[in-house]
Amino acid sequence: MISVVIIGYGNVAQHLLKAFLKVDAVDVKQVYSRTLSKVSHLKNVSFTDDISKLIDADIYIIAVSDDAIPLVSSQINNKGLIVHTSGSVSIDSLKNKGNKGVMYPLQSFSKEKEINFNEVPFCLETQNSDDYQLLEKLTLFLSKKIFAINSKQRQRLHVAAVFVNNFTNHMYTIGQDICDEHNVPFEVLLPLIQEGASKIKFLHPKEAQTGPAIRKDKKTIENHLNLLNDKQQNIYKLLTKSIQNG
Ligand SMILES: NC(=O)c1ccc[n+]([C@@H]2O[C@H](COP(=O)([O-])OP(=O)(O)OC[C@H]3O[C@@H](n4cnc5c(N)ncnc54)[C@H](OP(=O)(O)O)[C@@H]3O)[C@@H](O)[C@H]2O)c1
Fold first, then answer.
1. 111 pLDDT band (50/70/90 cuts)?
2. Ligand 1: does its nearest atom lie under 6 Å from the Cβ of 34?
3. Using one digit for the tens of pLDDT, what is the confidence trace for 58-89?
C-alpha cells in the first residue's frame, strides 16, 4: 500500500484523485486546498486548508500553479517524497527539506473532460533510486507509459509540447474563425485533423508535410494571403517560410 497526500485541487489534482481512489493499493490520506470550500464536499477523503496539518504519507503530490510550487513546497515539513506535476518547473524549485521528485503527466487536462490515464505518458525524476522505485510503483497503477526524464530534458519536452499541442490548437481556432466567417461547418475539417495526427505515428513529421508551402506553389500561396486578415497573413507567412526553410 502506498499512501498519498494531494496538494491543490485544480485540473490535474482532481483527475489524479479520481484515478487513485479507484486503486486499492493506493491510500489517498488527504487532499489540501487553500480554498476549503473547493474540497469540503469530498466524501471518504480527509481534507484540509491548513498546510501545517498534513497527514504523514509516503508521497505528497503538489499539483498547484507552477509559480506557487516553491512556496507551497517550502511549507511542507512532513517526511516522505514530495513531487510536483509540472512540465516546466525544475526539481530544484521544490523547497522542502526532504526528498524531492517530479511526476509530470504529459497530457492536457481539463476538469470537464474525462482522462484515460492508461494513455498518459508520465515523466519521472527523483534524486535517488529508492525514491524513483517508489514513484514508479505509484505511477504504474495509472499508466505503463513511464519515462525517466531529468529537469533539463523535461523543460525542452514541455516547449515541444507547446508547439505540438497549444500552437496546433491555436491553428484550429484560426481555421474555425475562417469557416465561421464564410458559413462553412468546421466539422468538414475534422477527418483532416484526425489523419494528420495519426499519420505522424508512422512517418517523420517532415515526411508527412504536404500543402502549398512545401510544394512551393507560389500562386496558391498568393491567393491564400489575399483571403486573410493582417494577423492571419503574418502567421501564414511565418509558417510558410519555416516549412520552406526545413
Ligand atoms: N492542466 C494541464 O493540462 C497540466 C498538464 C500537466 C501538468 N500540469 C501541471 O500541474 C500543475 C497544476 O496545474 P492545473 O492545470 O491543475 O492548475 P489549476 O487547475 O489552475 O489549479 C491550480 C491549483 O493551484 C492552487 N494554488 C495556486 N496558487 C496557490 C498557492 N499559493 N497556495 C496553494 N495553492 C495554490 C489553486 O488553488 P485555488 O483553487 O484555491 O486557487 C488550484 O488548486 C501545474 O504545475 C501544471 O504545470 C498541468
1. confident
2. yes
3. 999 999 999 999 999 999 998 899 999 999 99
State how far the Cα of 76 lies from the Cα of 89, in Å rounded to an integer: 18
pLDDT of res. 182: 95
Q: If you ran DSSP here, which 8-state letter would residue 142 be given?
A: T
Instruction: Output the residue whose Cα is nearest ligand 1's atom 30.
Output: 68
Each residue of 158-172: pLDDT tens digit? 999 999 999 999 999
**pLDDT score, position 145:** 97
Sequence-ordered list of residues with C-beta below 8 angstroms from that of 242, at least 6 positions apart, any chain = none
Please report, for residues 37, 66, 138, the alpha-carbon distance to residue 165 in angstroms, rounded to integers and kept in the order given: 33, 19, 27
240 lines ligand 1 (CB under 6 A): no
What's the gap in Å between 189 CA and the centre of ligand 1?
Answer: 33
What single DSSP character describes residue 79?
S
Is the beta carbon of 101 within 6 A of some atom in ligand 1? no
Q: For residue 38, which atom of ligand 1 is closest to its CA?
A: 39
Q: Which of 82, 204, 101, 89 is nearest to 158 (CA)?
A: 89
Alpha-carbon torsion angle 124, 127, 129, 130, nearest 10 = -100
| Rounded mean pLDDT, 214-223 | 97
